[in-house]
Amino acid sequence: MSGQPRIYPNLNPSAAVPVDRGQVFRLSSFAGNYRARRGKEHGQYVPNARFVFVKMMTGETLMHPRFRHPALAEGRPVVYAGEASFNNGKLDWWSNGSGNYRPDPDHAVQAGLPMEQFFTYEQILKGVHRERR
How many CB atoms lie within 10 A of CB 95? Predict the structure, then answer.
């Protein structure tokens, strides 16, 4: 990968349903730990579940455990999209699992997440991410 980042359009405009933006988490990391803020709340959450995420053109990573990718991105193009699993603030694994954006593994670095914890969607389906523990 070189030059300009690859931008992924929403392939399913009807999936960009309005959601309560106050329920959308913004991911941040510090020293290998992850935290999330939601809406206008001042507190931080320690992610401890599987989330759908999008890396926006603004650089922020938005996520939610149930909202679909186009709902998180409000139908806009993204730099990357996928799923991420956290265990008490630690990233277990992440993937390019998004049927609405279909990001390719060759551009996974654009997500800004640790590449050593990246698995393709196909590897997740086969359980490869569980074998490395």
Answer: 23
Name the residue type at position 122.
Answer: E
Amino acid at 50: R
> Cα separation of 131 and 102, whole Å?
25
Look at residues 53, 67, 62 and name the one whose alpha carbon lies nearest to residue 97.
Answer: 53
* 16-36 burial code (b ≥16 CB/10 A, e <16): beeeeeeebbebeeeeeebbb
Cα(101)–Cα(70) distance, integer angstroms: 8
Residue 65, token pair as written in the block: 């455990």
User: Would you kindly state where each structural domain of the chain is located, as residue ranges?
Assistant: 21-122
Residue type for position 45: Y
pLDDT in tens, the chain (133 residues): 456 789 999 999 999 999 999 999 999 998 889 999 998 888 999 999 999 999 999 999 999 999 999 999 999 999 999 999 999 999 999 999 999 999 999 999 999 999 999 999 999 999 999 876 5
Give the residue among 2, 61, 18, 3 at the shortest CA–CA distance from 36: 61
